[in-house]
Structure prediction request, 479 residues.
Amino acid sequence: MSDLTALPTRRREPRDGDGGAGGGATRPIDHLFLVLEGARPLGGGARWSLEGVDEVRIRRGSTRGATREVEDGRNVLSIKVPDTLLSSKHARLVRGASGFTLVDDKSTNGTFIDGEKIEARALADGTCFEVGAAHFVFRSALPTPASTPVDVESESLVGRGHGIASLVPEYADELAKLARVAQSTLSILFLGESGAGKEVLAGAAHRLSGREGPFVPVNCAALTATLMESQLFGHTKGAFSGALRDEPGFVRASDGGTLFLDEIGDLPAPSQAALLRVLEAREVVPVGSTKAIPVDLRVVSATLKSADSLRPDLRARLAGFTHHLLPLRERIEDLGVVLAELLPRALGDRAKTTTLTPEAGRALLAHDWPLNVRELNQALGVAIALAKDGTLDEKDLPASVRATKEEEAPEAPAPRPLPAPATPRAIPDDEGSLRALLVATLQESNGNVSDVSRVLGKTRMQIHRWMKRFEIDPETFRR
Prediction:
């Protein structure tokens, strides 16, 4: 754990707006994330607030930790990382009039941004840099709920053991809400992209609920169309051709526990109506029977589609609480947290001695992860199979991940990030004008959600909610 000596802090003032992910006021605060330690990938990551900090010093240490102190009237944050490729004085972040500048401190192995060795460079929001085999991300004016701790080590994240953890302030606040709701009887609806971890969070919600019955996951898209209702609600012997015995169905199988309906948007309208009756009456009638059987279950559901794909009355029943999962590319600061969970599952005890080369870490951070955590897990599986001596190198990763900078380089120079205006753009009241403003800002920013957040003066979570509401895909704006 970090050795943290508190600096004088400024009082957090509420900011006008939507209140952020957790319903409280948010403020824009600079943060530094240690995303990944190549020498110690099971270390997860860490986040340090840069509010009030004049200088950050990064150096080698026997253990990971951070201290805060005042030197000659300057607030200094010193970060130590156990990496033999780091120097005793490696790099500094120095605050100037226009923001932070990354300075190499005459280190032995150099400081790199996007694989380029640098001596000094101004940091923009989202800049990734590496020192030794450690990879950092600088975030400028990151919307931060008032309840967010100043500094966080991933080992101390509440909910990490359940798969409900994030270093990103907004998303951590949203996950904290999910953890509290999981302990209630409310139904939960998960919305998010493929591979983002909906079933993982559903399983976590079940474990946190304290329900003693089983967790029963059902992929609604894989149910047989002609037998869907018998698969869900069960059937009696002889109910139809091939019904050789009584079957309880998924609903009764989850009695006393949690029924997880994945891809519920693919459930046909008649089955949605039958499911609604089960949820309202808390009883199920098997196919071929006239007798209702009481059931005690909690329903957690998920869909890739908009919640509007569900009939309104069923949606009202399922969405007691709705959680939007961020895609991995929108929470790349959590890459190390996710890796620390995936590696032990794939390697067991060998994960403790596994390392990543700086090039491998650079490739993982640069990839866009269109299939999210599922794709990351598959990429790690390939790298583990090909790696030698327990070190995962860039050449061991799948071709789609290890694409060279030249292969990924755009034909035209990459656009500069949209600067935040002195006054955020006014948000119109009517839906049509709001959608038009959102589309226009996405076009200007080439689909960069962080840019849109700054220009509109709203949190990234709020931008994602609007995109979900209007069924807008930011990928269509990325060039």
Remarks:
- The domain at 26-153 is CATH 2.60.200.20 (Tumour Suppressor Smad4).
- The chain has four domains: 26-153, 215-313, 330-408, 431-477.
- The longest strand covers residues 26-37.
